[in-house]
Amino acid sequence: MTSTTNNNDATDMEALYRRAIADASSLTQAETNLIFDWVSPEEDEHICRTKANGKTRAELIAIAATNPEQLTRVESQLVQRSTVFLTDLRREAQNPNQPPPDMMELIDRAQHFVRSALTKRKIPLYDEAYKAVWNALDDQERLAIIAARDRLSQIMDEEWAEDNRKYPRRMQQPEQVGFSRD
41 lies in a domain? Predict the structure, then answer.
């Protein structure tokens, strides 16, 4: 049953890719999210409101496009729809009282995501469909995603610098082995 399901999924994705290439602007938001490996639009909106102090996706996009320096780390990740981050938030949104997953569960989830993403990418039309959908995104959203990525990089650089100030890393000098001729 799994191989049949995988074949049907691949056939469905190939059909979606063909539609995206033909007219990416005709795709629904859910179909766009599927191509990009984003969560559903409903989950996306819920996660944004939950993790960004009530801000909507549209508000985060507007901030990222006009004032990306105002984005927090979490908001930057939300604008980019960082997959690993959103997977954990999806779980929290569905059942916030559930204890956090253990390391093995996180590894399993990550491996499942990677397998799924790689399967999609093996379909010959994937790259062309991805580019078509990316180019069909609203200019503001595309700019916001790029700005959020740059902002997250800046935040991570600042965190790294702060970490280095707090905990200087000493360069370990190899001990000199001296030989005496005495």
Answer: yes
Residue with tokens 């999210």: 33
Q: Is the pTM of this model over 0.85?
A: no
pLDDT digits (tens, 9 = 90+) for 60-114: 999 999 999 999 999 999 998 866 565 565 566 566 666 666 666 666 766 776 7
Q: Is residue 73 part of a domain?
A: yes
Which string of DSSP letters, residue by residue, matches 28-39? -HHHHHHHHTPP
Number of domains in the chain: 1
Q: Are 97 and 88 in contact (CB under 8 A)?
A: no
Please give the Cα distance from 30 to 38 (Å, whole number). Answer: 9
Structural domain boundaries enclosing 49: 2-158
Q: Give the whole-angstrom CA distance, residue 81 versus residue 137.
A: 14
Q: What is the dihedral of CA 124, 126, 132, 135, to 10 degrees?
A: -140
Residues 96, 99, 101: CA angle, nearest 5 degrees: 110
Residues 3-13: tens digit of each pLDDT: 444 556 778 88
Residue 182 placed within a domain: no
Q: Is residue 27 part of a domain?
A: yes
